[in-house]
TrEMBL record:
The protein's name in its UniProt record: Acg family FMN-binding oxidoreductase
Listed Gene3D superfamilies: NADH Oxidase, putative nitroreductase (tm1586), domain 2
InterPro entries, per the entry: Nitroreductase-like, Nitroreductase/BluB
SUPFAM superfamilies assigned: FMN-dependent nitroreductase-like (SSF55469)
Entries under NCBIfam families matching the protein: Rv3131_FMN_oxido
Length: 337
């Protein structure tokens, strides 16, 4: 994938361009414009889509796997789950039914097949307003305000999850947050002390995928690749965690690729709902990237038999919404006969 191809123009997609009356295969391609707006770790966008008649196959692209930070492909599958969720929300908006087959546990790069069905009733109870947030959602990196998350918002978060496969923990106890912040600092220090981790992060900063201008991206790459900033990152990130009104954790019983895809779907649904409610969202993955801190996180948050999959801050912040770029749809999709 060529960094030069990354573009902001993907965010300008308009629902008025939906090819009404066209064959389902054409409509499937249109839905993919929304799938590629999904969040992904380091904005690596590790997805590939193939439209075959009325089915969409979603695979992962190993060249965009963060093989140092994400050794067990947890973030890769979560990211693809986010794209799958966007696809489902867009399909429902245009009254296209679908059936999802999860294939991530099989031994190749195919993650899921989505078979479309015309003019069907929406098959889920996702709130319709999530659709408009597909082009609005963004990740916030700021310190959140000292303002609690309303009880009603927490209830809506719980209600929007319609699966038993993934559990949502909302943590607001100051002592627990401090303890997670401590783990974050440990994880940051360990990751940043690893030259291979810094090189990988530097590469992604250098592509501009994380949203800076070309020059800033190059400077950022040089700094990240050559200096161990673990101590500074650790202090900054643990403060972000301690001061957030809520730390959310998604956990699953199974620790399989499919469980991670489903975690991604749930996360994206929550992120879109948060966007609709002007609540900022910020995933923080370092604790989960190291087996020892991941196990310790489970102990400190009391997930019991469940395994932590995705950790993110929720809160309020005054800032302008900004979008990171994406590879255009043509670069990540194909139509197969
Ligand atoms: C699985 C996953 C893990 C992520 N981990 C982090 C993280 O550790 N730190 C961070 O700042 N952002 C993290 N993000 C957010 C991505 O950096 C962000 O989604 C990506 O840059 C695209 O930007 P956008 O969400 O604003 O569209 C993560 C996102 C996903 C889906």
């Amino acid at each position: 994938m060529d960094a030069d191809e990354l573009t902001q123009s993907v965010w300008d997609i308009s629902k008025d361009e939906f090819p009404d009356g066209s064959p389902l295969g054409e409509q499937a391609k249109f839905l993919l414009h929304y799938a590629i707006l999904a969040p992904s770790s380091h904005n690596s966008q590790p997805w590939r889509f193939a439209v075959r008649d009325e089915a969409i196959e979603i695979s992962y692209d190993e060249t965009r796997w963060l093989e140092v930070a994400d050794q067990d492909k947890r973030e890769l599958f979560i990211s693809i789950g986010c794209a799958l969720e966007n696809l489902c929300i867009a399909a429902e908006h245009f009254n296209i039914g679908y059936e999802i087959t999860y294939r991530a546990d099989e031994d190749d790069d195919l993650v899921s097949t989505v078979t479309l069905e015309r003019d069907s009733e929406p098959s889920s109870n996702r709130p319709p307003e999530l659709f408009d947030e597909l082009t609005e959602r963004y990740t916030s990196h700021q310190l959140f305000e000292d303002q609690a998350l309303p009880r009603e918002a927490r209830e809506r978060f719980r209600r929007v999850i319609e699966t038993d496969d993934v559990t949502l923990y909302l943590i607001d106890d100051p002592e627990q947050k401090r303890s997670i912040g401590e783990l974050q600092a440990d994880a940051d220090e360990a990751q940043m002390a690893d030259p291979a981790y810094r090189k990988e992060l530097g590469y992604w900063v250098g592509t501009g995928a994380l949203g800076s201008s070309w020059l800033m991206a190059r400077i950022g790459q040089a700094v990240v690749s050559h200096f161990d900033l673990g101590d500074r990152e650790g202090r900054k990130n643990s403060k972000l965690i301690e001061r957030a009104p809520v730390i959310a954790l998604l956990a699953t019983h199974a620790d399989t690729p499919t469980a991670r895809v489903k975690t991604g779907q749930v996360f994206e649904r929550l992120a879109l709902l948060a966007s609709a409610e002007d609540i900022a969202v910020h995933p923080m993955s370092q604790v989960l990237e190291r087996p020892e801190t991941r196990t310790e996180l489970a102990a400190r948050t009391g997930t019991g038999e469940e395994i932590p999959q995705h950790l993110f801050r929720l809160g309020h912040v005054e800032e302008e919404r900004t979008h990171t770029p994406r590879w255009p749809l043509e670069a990540v999709s194909s139509t197969e006969q």
